[in-house]
Amino acid sequence: MQKKLEKEYRRATEKGYTTDSRKYNEYDKPFEEQMHMGLTYNGKRYVRVKANLCENKVTLSNGQEYKNGDYVWVEVAPVKWLIDEEAKIMLSDKIIFAGVQFNEKSDYKTENFEEVRIKRFMDEIFSKDLEQVRGIGSLEKESDKTGEKNKKKSRIEKLNPDKTNYADRTKMTDTEIIHNWIESGESVLLRGPSGIGKTERIKSLYPDLIYMKLTNNMFPEKVVGSTNLQTGQDIPPNFAKTAIMQEATEEEKKLIEENIQNIYKIADTVYERSKTSDKKIVILLDELLNVKPAVQCLVYTLVLNRIVEIGNGLKLPDNVVIVATGNQKKYSNVAEDLAEPLEKRFDHIVDMMPKVGEWITDYAIPKKVHSGVLGYILSNYLSKGKSENIEDMGYFYEEPDVGEKNLDENGCNGRTNDPRGWSSISNMLNNFERNLESGKYEGKDVEDILKRSIKSKLRLEWAEEFFDYYNLPTLTPEEVVQGIGKGYSEADLPENINERYAYIMALLTANESQVEACREFIRKYCDPEYLSIYDIYWAGNDERKMEKISELQELSSQLHNIKETEKYAQEGVTSYTNIGQMYNEFLTKDKESVRGE
Known about the structure:
Blueprint: H1 2-8, E1 14-20, E2 33-41, E3 44-50, E4 57-59, E5 65-67, E6 71-75, E7 81-84, E8 89-92, H2 117-133, H3 142-146, H4 155-159, H5 174-183, E9 188-191, H6 198-205, E10 210-213, H7 221-224, E11 226-227, E12 234-235, H8 238-247, H9 250-258, H10 263-274, E13 281-286, H11 293-296, H12 300-305, E14 307-308, E15 314-315, E16 320-326, H13 340-343, E17 348-351, H14 356-364, H15 371-383, H16 401-404, H17 419-437, H18 446-455, H19 460-470, H20 477-481, H21 497-506, H22 515-525, H23 528-539, H24 543-571, H25 579-587, H26 591-596
Parallel strand pairs: 9-16, 9-17, 10-13, 13-16
Antiparallel strand pairs: 1-2, 2-3, 3-6, 4-5, 7-8, 11-12, 14-15
Helix pairs in contact: 14-15, 15-21, 17-18, 18-19, 23-24, 24-25
């Protein structure tokens, strides 16, 4: 069970529970909260915590032994209360938290209980965690009680050949489900505020898409084509020609170039041939909701039938898919309502909002967003319990009207954060660092230059916070490989969780030859959780990097087991005649058991 839960941890998104992040023997240090992610698995709720022991190891009630620093999955259960209604008090039948300092003062005395740390912990943190577990009980289905053989299968269950356990299945991201629709040949309209990556998302999925930005002053011929008044010949728009040429043979392309009128006959041939094509040709209509109805109506037939209204009509290849983007009225002063007939011609309409987790994995890591930006966003995202609620993601995205409530010193609307802006900051940082390293700013106050650059993109409070994060002392992958970090100890790294993430994120730029040294540095000087996070985000969605991390994890596991074997042999607890015998037996184990050791 522990292995299965650990596997699912990467996708954990539920808000979890709070403990003190201090070591068991740090008695005089103040409480520093640490969030642990919750996870629902097979109808039960679990939370992942780290063993914080005063002994080398401990055996839990399930018989499993854990060492200091190991991760342990604990089932979440409702608190059972003993209630005295007359006295208006409740007592729990078991201790439900421990280890929180009664008082931060060295004498541990107080005359006012309202001021002590343990009271603030119960009011500000513990009470909220209690709220989360209210009503949790058995989610066992009635069908499970009566037996699988009597269970009636739904239509989906009958059609789906997937035998994966239901609890092990994951939800598609927005990007994945949009990709799925397009690959099924279904048109999509993406609506949402500016700057959240609607257009960029489609361009990333289909780099060769046919892009057409709609504007109120554009010539209709760009959409519907035109007629040569001297010859009477119909001339198709460029996007239609491009779509047909992508599916035409070399001979057909030559005929079209010789005489554009040949395109009509060839289009019919291409249409029939494209019915069996697995490739999708995406035509992106950008800003469809930001143009007047007179411009919107030009694309009616294109969206519905993939036909361009020129002459007798030019049929586009069957594998053409129309995707459009735009802003709703509440996000743009120039947005227009989409005419109902046109709106109904889209197979899917998606009202999009930014999601931090998807931006990190689908955009920031593949696009190599500056490590300072990635680290800042990721550290805030994790400290917020991976929350995707708008009220929790001001560091990443703020709705446009937020700026109106934060006028700057000149009385202008305050700036607001959005994904596009963070991409711009990433580019700015790369340029700043290149100029700095080349000596362009010699004799200048470079901190002032960077602060002013950041302030031009972020509201004042965010600009100051981000600069402080960016400027934290860290190590580069090159410095780690060169051994500059060998003199470090865990005490040299900052205690603040967000600041410690800065060290880890700075090492995300490591290439495949540097990553082993960087992982060793993190393993040696940081908690195991940091290494898990580093592995996940360094690999991203890159299959090759995933394999590299898997190899390094397996190697680390092997070395750990060898060291443990040597330790036991020296202590005289091994029953093997020699270490070689145990090591040979270890090598014969399958990979799954190796990872579980």
